[in-house]
Design a protein that fits this description.
heterodimer, A: about 425 residues, alpha/beta, Rossmann fold, 7-stranded mixed β-sheet, 5-stranded parallel β-sheet, 12 helices, B: globular, cell membrane (chain B), transmembrane helix (chain B), amino-acid transport (chain B), transport (chain B), transmembrane (chain B)
């Protein structure tokens, strides 16, 4: 034993006084470094700093990669056109690991260390729910691109806004009539067992019942699950339609195992493209999807009748005809969601210009400027389509696409209207104090 | 679905879990049995096997079986080589002291995981299965590849058993396991045997990983769950006992498959953990482990 102990101590003997001091010095230098980066010019040319809370790692990594690309492209477009109020836009990225706790820490780091003007870009609903309180306490605007109903529910705070992407409640409500009319009325829901999946469960169920349909079974799946076959026997035999939505690194396994289980003779499939975001639809084992339907926020595949501004958007964010990276055909995008980053940055620009944003003192004015927005026309700033923003619930509403897999590609077969998804607001953020 | 087919599906799923699990746990058990080292980094060798399999398979065009077969040979060899180097550079320097090796393998876990994140990235990437065949049973369909996984894993297990009991290398390993000092006195190069066993253990985990990547995807965090499950298996089966490991893996795999299908996956994990607690209280050496000498 004493011999062992000696060898342990010898290991530490490599650390000399000099090298320890060197290390300490280097560490101190690193900590101090950001302080030296100061802008000598007048305040007016200092960049507007947007802290981008990015899912670079963790279960949201595929989305994070594409959110980052779209954000970079949108920021470049804004800067090429003269920036915001004549000031350049600077994006500062921090990885939140798709983790709520780290999300809150990242918001604090943005506010206290990077001194950003606002925080933006979060997708996963549990990270938004975990980070929003920090943004509220620090009184820093928090523009999320998340889909979850939590913003519209009124449970966040005045600083948390979702102006670039429709929430799940409206999405589920807008596809329900089409499902009941075209696919069937007995629906089984398969969804991830956390906030985002619960939104689907809670809002699709009444929506389909309003169409005379019913949910015959609900199959929640833990978001960290890697094997799915065991859940499929819970789907009743008399199901007409399986409504599936899945997230995380195992989505391909999920869809593949569904195919193995049912083959092409099973119930009709209606999926949220989340189940296949960043996954190639022509992957081996997915042939059974031919003819099935998906919700898409924005089409992954270039559509024959798309307007010029959509073509320009797709080129700017670097995706090809199949919605994969222009540089790597295997790197499939998260096209159905990532447009939200592009649109949200344009809304941030519009809000800052509307309130003549000068600096952090104008943060409340900026939120008020966003709240005052209503209709947004489709165009280069809003390539996904026209939108209607409700300032009371800090939530935007847009048209949704229903696409069918034809010859291994998604083709839009129906576009819902904004009214299809509309619902009565249940909150009023504008009545809350800053 | 009626009870019969439901049970059949649960059993099939359980057997696939058991097949893969027994290979991983066998590696962990060998390392502990011979070296008395609790290898916390074992799950990361598994992950590394999967990541390398993706990398190797993506280098080959043509029929997916070519890339897969090359990966099945190459990936475990590379992982074994890495484990060999890690053993020589780290564990042997610590003189296999239990506390030190646990801390060292935890360090190894993070190093391998973060290197995979840096160079492979956070994405989950699939390896194409060597063949696609879907068996249509009267009640449900099932992937024939999953059955092949069970078959191949049995072959690997028999091969390991053969090496351990019928070859000179196996004899040397068993001698080292039985009594390290006497083995050394008889001229067995204990250090090299240790390095070999550590490499073999990691290689077995990598084989399991290559088998699983066509079903699941290679992801830098995938080593976590198998590590926990194989610890459970090894504790129940008895550390260092090949027979016990395989039996416990089948037991845990099947109960996981069946309980999680009829009740919930959480309950399956709870029962497995409870079984570990009971074994530790009433039979600490495990079902087939020899009592500590």
């Amino acid at each position: 034993m004493s011999e062992n102990r000696k060898s342990l101590i010898n290991l530490n003997g490599g650390l000399t006084r000099r090298s320890a001091l060197k290390g300490l010095g280097a560490a101190a230098g690193l900590v101090a470094a950001p302080g030296f980066v100061r802008y000598g010019q007048a305040q007016s040319s200092e960049p507007i700093k947007v802290g981008f809370q990015c899912h670079r790692t963790g279960i949201g990594a595929a989305y994070g990669r594409w959110y980052e690309r779209v954000t970079t492209a949108a920021a470049k477009r804004i800067n090429d056109a003269g920036g915001i109020n004549g000031r350049p836009l600077e994006i500062i990225i921090e990885d939140d690991g798709t983790d709520p706790k780290r999300g809150a820490e990242v918001v604090e780091k943005f506010a206290n260390q990077h001194k950003v003007d606002l925080v933006y870009g979060t997708l996963f609903s549990h990270v938004v729910v975990g980070s929003a309180p920090a943004a509220g306490e620090l009184k820093i605007p928090y523009y999320v691109v998340s889909e979850g109903y939590h913003v519209a529910s009124g449970k966040m705070n005045r600083y948390c806004v979702q102006p670039g992407i429709t929430d799940v409640k409206a999405q589920a409500r807008s596809v329900a009539p089409w499902i009941a009319d075209n696919l069937g009325k007995k629906v089984t829901l398969v969804y991830p067992d956390y906030a985002f999946g619960h939104d689907h469960r809670d809002f699709f169920t009444p929506a389909i019942e309003a169409q005379g349909g019913q949910v015959v079974a609900k199959v929640p799946i833990p978001p960290t699950e890697t094997s799915f076959t065991r859940y499929f026997p819970q789907i009743p035999r008399d199901t007409d339609v399986i409504y599936h939505v899945m997230v995380g690194p195992a989505v391909l396994t999920f869809v593949k195992e569904m195919g193995e289980f049912f083959g092409s003779g099973g119930p009709q499939l209606f999926g949220f493209i989340d189940s296949l975001e960043a996954v190639d639809i022509s992957s081996p084992g997915l042939e059974f999807l031919e003819g099935s339907h998906f919700w898409e926020g924005m089409p992954r595949y270039a559509q024959p009748d798309q307007p010029d501004y959509v073509t320009a958007y797709r080129e700017a964010v670097g995706i090809d005809q199949n919605g994969a990276s222009a540089n790597d055909a295997k790197d499939v995008s998260t096209a159905a969601h990532m447009f939200g980053c592009w649109e949200t940055l344009n809304i941030i620009k519009a809000s800052m210009e509307a309130c003549d944003y000068k600096g952090p003192d104008d943060r409340a004015a900026m939120i008020e400027a966003t709240e005052a927005m209503t209709e947004m026309e489709a165009g280069p700033d809003h390539p996904q389509g026209k939108k209607l923003f409700n300032g009371k619930i800090h939530q935007v509403f847009g048209e949704q696409n229903i696409s069918q897999v034809k010859k291994g590609k998604l083709e839009v077969v129906h576009r819902t209207s904004i009214e299809d998804g509309a619902y009565e607001p249940e909150a009023d953020y504008t009545a809350m104090s800053f | 679905m009626a009870f019969g087919p439901y049970f059949l599906l649960a059993t099939l799923e359980g057997l696939v879990t058991a097949a893969v699990l027994s290979l991983i746990a066998l590696g962990l058990s060998l390392v502990f049995g011979v070296m008395r080292v609790v290898n916390v980094a074992h799950g990361e060798f598994y992950m590394l096997g999967a990541v390398l399999a993706w990398w190797v398979a993506s280098l080959f065009g043509g029929h997916p079986a070519i890339g897969f077969m090359v990966a099945l040979v190459l990936s475990p060899l590379v992982v074994a080589a890495i484990a060999f180097v890690a053993e020589r550079l780290v564990l042997s320097r610590l003189k296999y002291e239990p506390e030190a090796t646990i801390v060292a393998t935890i360090g190894l876990l993070y190093i391998i995981q973060q290197l995979a994140l840096t160079f492979y990235g956070p994405e989950a990437r699939p390896v194409e299965a060597p063949f696609h065949y879907r068996m249509q049973l009267p009640w449900f369909g099932y992937s024939a590849y999953k059955l092949a996984v069970i078959g191949f894993s049995i072959v690997m297990m028999l091969a390991t058993w053969f090496v351990l009991t019928r070859t000179k290398i196996g004899l040397v390993m068993r001698a080292t396991q039985f009594d390290r000092e006497t083995a050394q006195a008889f001229g067995i190069p204990v250090g090299r045997v240790y390095a070999g066993v550590f490499a073999l253990g990691a290689g077995l985990a990598a084989v399991a990983a290559v088998l699983i990547v066509p079903i699941q995807q290679a992801h830098y965090l995938m080593g976590h769950d198998p590590l926990l499950l194989s610890f459970i298996v090894v504790i129940i089966g008895g550390l260092g006992s090949l027979r016990g490991t395989v039996l416990a893996a089948v037991l845990i795999g099947l109960s996981d498959g069946i309980i999680s299908m009829f009740f919930s996956p959480t309950l399956a994990k709870m029962l497995a953990t409870l079984a570990v607690a009971m074994i530790l209280v009433f039979r600490p050496q495990g079902l087939f482990g020899a009592a500590a000498r």
